[in-house]
Amino acid sequence: MDHTDRHLPLMIQAARDAGTHIMHYFRSGSNISQSAGISHKGQDNPLTQADLEANETIQRILMTAFPDYGWLSEESIDPKDRLEKQRVWIVDPLDGTKEFIRGIPEFAVSIALTEAGQTIAACVFNPPLDELFTAVAGQGSRKNGHHIQTSRTTQLAGAVCLASNSETKRGDWEPFKNEFAMIPLGSIAYKLATLASGKGDLTFTLTPKNEWDIAAGELLVREAHGQVTDKDGNRITFNQPSAKLRSVLATNGQLHPPLLKRLANVSLNQDRR
Q: In this predicted model, what pLDDT tens digit does every residue of 34-84 receive, in sequence order?
């Protein structure tokens, strides 16, 4: 396969260029600059000028180089011809927009290249912290060029769980607060990258997510010796007609069987979007 030499450097360039646009508006510890604007695509789903500029930058770089590939992005109209493509870019140009708006450095640019429904190359970039996570199928995961791997925690009780900020505020994590050491963290793409680096033992969501939230981070975790499935233990397949994922569980691998057992009879949450 040729994705190591040809694709990953371009993905890194696209992520960093998108990050430059994003950081133009970011204000650490305070709300974004007025010029970024804030609109809403739906309930609890904000959009800023940074999202749009980052999306345009990534799409221009990747699709100019590989015009025959499919494209799926949170900030683009879904071109259904992607379903006919063997290779598809799956992108979230700014995952964690709510944290970005509030000046919290817990957001990321997420870029995945999928082939036949599986991610083969991934890039997740946190611009304010200058953390660049990359992975290529069969070649491991890296953070800023250095190999990373998931934690080796073996006991579910007391394990470090990276929990969603918004889900924590809604009370979704209340049933688990005495079982895990909870660390709320924005952006699921960033949570998966953080998990891959060994900072945390598990994360999961029983609230629907989109493919672009997960596709890059899924490979980062797997290539770092972790495991990612849905609530029923099935491996996730990307580039589906509906880009919705009903549940996502990610662990260091060793905790996956007990977590699946723990959540087996837990109900899924409603789609709040």
A: 888 888 877 778 889 999 999 999 999 999 999 999 999 999 998 889 999
% the chain with pLDDT above 90: 81
**Contacts for 73-82: CB closer than 8 Å, 24+ residues apart:** 73/212, 74/210, 74/212, 75/47, 75/51, 78/243, 80/241, 82/239
Q: Tell me: domain 3-148, CATH 1.10.3120.10, correct?
A: no
The pTM of the full predicted model, rounded to 2 decimals, is 0.95
Classify the phi-psi angles of 158: left when phi > 0, otherwise alpha if psi is within -120 to 50, otherwise beta: left
Count of positions (residues) in the chain: 273
**Average model confidence (pLDDT) for the chain?**
93
Which residue intervals of 66-164 are DSSP H helices?
97-101
> What is the model's pLDDT at position 2?
53
* Three-state DSSP state, 176: helix
Instruction: List all residues 6 or more positions away from 34 whose beta carbon is below 8 Å from its beta carbon.
Output: none
CA dist., res. 254 & res. 232, Å (int) = 17
Q: Which CATH class is domain 160-263?
A: alpha beta
Task: Give the rounded distance of the alpha carbon of 152 from its chain centre.
Answer: 22
Place of tokens 């394990």: 159
Residue written as tokens 């992975």? 135
Q: Residue 172: exposed, middle, or buried by beta-carbon count in 10 A (0-12, 13-18, 19+)?
A: middle
Q: At CA 204, angle to CA 203 and CA 208, rounded to 5?
A: 145
Residue range(s) of every CATH 3.40.190.80 domain in the chain? 160-263
Tokens 């994003």 found at: 22
